[in-house]
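Lecture notes, part 5. Sequence design as translation. It can be helpful to think of inverse folding as translation between two languages: the language of shapes and the language of residues. The source text, in structure tokens, appears below.
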């Protein structure tokens, strides 16, 4: 779902804007890197104090790769940093075509990524860089861009009733894959996970117009959680580990449901606090820096 949303949002956030490669890349760097580097530095401090606390799943940790996001087959200080490596590879490809408009960028990026995936199916992927640049998960970005193209071009029209059905079917497929321990799930994740996640994504997207019209407390709560999702994403490895260690020290791990609920509440709450008091000030600071600005187009290139 993460990469599908990324493919979709990159199109939504650039449509009808006049951007070139450098403008788009600068906007992405300013939005993603500052908070990521901050959390990586926090992880570095922990790593220098006790390396065994970081990346407890095993494997060698690379400090320079953690900051540059250049994959070298080793672990990052912030364990979820690997996803941002794939994000920025996608950004680079998307940026190569963005000066031609969002719709053409979506089409050309999708073709490029699919070619790379096909190469990966037949190439020897023992080398980290080749494995990274031809991974099948890039299909998930393509799915997101295709959703944008089909929906914004009115080729596919969203319907809440159909959305309910798609969400149920997608969830059921994921459940069946998990229950029957479907083989090669990870190796073919772009399809085995991508297709059911596509159904869920389109299904939930079908409710957007209905949700926008509502003004309930739950809607506003989820809106705030959505706004703070990047902070939550970056710090949840810290909050989950720290909270789990505290609960273990207090002998409060016997009930798995209570344990999971505490982890969830603490992670979401701290994620929102980081958003309010760290991420938002960082965003404001970046906006005050001189930057190349996009120019609205009279007639968007499509």
């Amino acid at each position: 779902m993460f990469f599908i949303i990324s493919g979709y949002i990159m199109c939504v956030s650039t449509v009808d804007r006049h951007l070139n490669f450098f403008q788009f890349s600068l906007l992405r760097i300013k939005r993603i890197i500052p908070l990521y580097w901050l959390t990586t530095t926090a992880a570095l401090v922990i790593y220098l104090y006790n390396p065994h606390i970081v990346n407890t799943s095993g494997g060698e940790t690379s400090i320079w790769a953690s900051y540059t996001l250049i994959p070298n087959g080793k672990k990052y200080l912030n364990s979820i940093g690997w996803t941002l490596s794939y994000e920025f590879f996608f950004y680079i490809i998307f940026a190569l075509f963005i000066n031609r408009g969002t719709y053409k960028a979506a089409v050309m990026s999708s073709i490029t990524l699919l070619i790379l995936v096909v190469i990966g199916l037949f190439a020897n992927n023992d080398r980290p860089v080749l494995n990274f640049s031809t991974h099948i998960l890039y299909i998930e970005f393509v799915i997101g861009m295709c959703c944008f193209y089909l929906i914004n071009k009115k080729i596919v029209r969203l319907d809440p009733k159909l959305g309910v059905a798609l969400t149920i079917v997608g969830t059921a497929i994921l459940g069946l894959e998990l229950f029957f321990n479907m083989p090669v799930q990870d190796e073919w994740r772009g399809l085995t996970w991508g297709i059911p996640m596509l159904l869920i994504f389109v299904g939930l997207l079908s409710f957007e117009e209905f949700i926008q019209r509502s003004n309930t407390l739950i809607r506003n709560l989820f809106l705030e959680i959505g706004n703070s999702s990047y902070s939550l994403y970056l710090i949840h490895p810290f909050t989950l580990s720290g909270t789990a260690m505290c609960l273990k020290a207090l002998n409060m791990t016997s009930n798995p449901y209570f344990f999971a609920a505490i982890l969830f509440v603490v992670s979401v709450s701290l994620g929102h606090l980081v958003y309010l008091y760290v991420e938002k000030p960082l965003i404001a600071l970046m906006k005050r820096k001189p930057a190349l600005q996009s120019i609205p187009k009279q007639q968007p290139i499509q």
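The translated text above is only one of many valid answers, since several sequences can fold into similar shapes. The longest helix spans residues 256-288.
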